[in-house]
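Researcher: Hi, I'm a grad student and pretty new to this. My advisor asked me to get structures for two proteins we've been looking at. I'm not sure of the right format, so I'll just paste the first sequence and hope you can take it from there.
Model: That works fine. Here's the first sequence with its structure tokens right after it:
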Amino acid sequence: MVSREHKRSAAALREKLQLLRSITNSHAVNDTSIIADASNYIKELKQRLEILNQDIYEAAGQTSLPVVNVETLPKGFLINVFSDKNCQRLLVSILEAFEELGLEVLEATASCINSFRFQAVGGENEVQSENIDAEVVKQAVLRTIKNWSQGIDP
């Protein structure tokens, strides 16, 4: 009985992997490569979405929002925010977002003259119970920037 159930679940998994392979236009043969290709495909879609959202925002006559990049470090994150214009109070809003996430700023540099540049290394607070990934940090910063641009306090 267990053998039939195992065969059925293995067949279902193979079918789902093949579907994933076809959706992502992967030419990979083994399961690990199919999943890696799918992960890269998702990252590419997210980048396209960000570009489209920026294009829509600019087409609506708005000035461009700051660019946000977040990289995972062994013990935290490297966060970069850049805008070609001065962004009053944005730094405070971003730091408040870090606090809400439970991130401690371990090191930071900021410039708010003629443009806005912010680079920080943030680490998880020791009392933080759940792990935070780079995408969660990036989305929190983007949400903060969006609220800031609309004049909403975080």
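Researcher: Oh nice, that was easy. Here's the second one.
Model: And its structure:
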Amino acid sequence: MSATMLRLMPRLMPLLLLNTEPGFMLCPGPCLCYESSELVDCRSRGLDQVPLSVPHGTWLLDLSGNKVKEVRGKSFMGLWSLKILLMSNNSIHALHPQCAFQSLSSLQFLERLDLSFNRLRWLPQDFTQSLSSLLELRLDHNLLQHLDSASLADADNLRKLDLSYNRLQTMDARAFVSLSRLRQLSLQGNQLNALRDGLLSRQQGLEVLLLSSNNISVIEADALAPLRGLTLLDLKGNQLVGVKFKTFLKLQTTSTHLQMSLNPWTCDCELQRVFSKIQYVRYLHVEDYEDIICHAPPQQTGASLASMDSQLCMAETTSVLVITITVMLAVIGALVKAERNRKSRQSASDAESEEK
């Protein structure tokens, strides 16, 4: 053995011993492996694919900030201990069905998966087939346009789902039907135009529902009724011009905070009555009531609904009263005129009778 090798042996021995332990593979060249914490750090290493030599005992694998474009089969084979997989800020545009995450049978204990800030346009129907232990899933800041009913069908333990800042316009009515344990759902920054009845029918335990910065103009009558545990509902920055009081009254919760500003509200008596009633319900709290600004009618544009107190209803009542009095006067006038005409005809008839 050369003198150089002899000098290096003290440094190489710990590594050789470490990498010959049962179940342990050599650390991927560009990455850092921390054996004591079973963490593999491959952040921002310029990788264009998932490295194949990840140690089997890895608990956390961080691949964020690389150049991975596709996730294919066998990428994570043998990683039975993996609980956290971070792949944000890559260029992933495809999760190949029947091979990418279906082949994650070895990841049956995965609890957190981060695929945010990628370029995903769709999810395979079998996306969560082997991810039954998943608790948190981040898919925010992708290019998703539609959510299929089968894509999340097997994620029945999921607690937190982030689909914010995609391009979602539609979702199957049964898209969340398996997610009965969901506690937080983030859908802000999409292109949804309505909150439909039945979409959240299984989410009795949902605590946080974030829907800001969409195009929602309709909240159907029973859309919120199943949400018995809701503590925060964010509807800021949508296209709501009015809402129905009964829709929110069906929120039978202990305490729910509502955020509803930055919508193009039509400020009339009906809207004022709705918000007045909501604020009298002890468990409903409109956090940003002072920031609800009128967009119509023109004479109210820019004014806050709160600053008008009951003026809108008073004005409406006055208008109705004026119209009612005007109609009544017109009717009375018509009756008086009719009576005068009748008397005139009667007088003429009496005069003719006397002449005869």
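Researcher: Is there anything I should tell my advisor about the second?
Model: You could mention this: The two ends are 156 Å apart (CA to CA).
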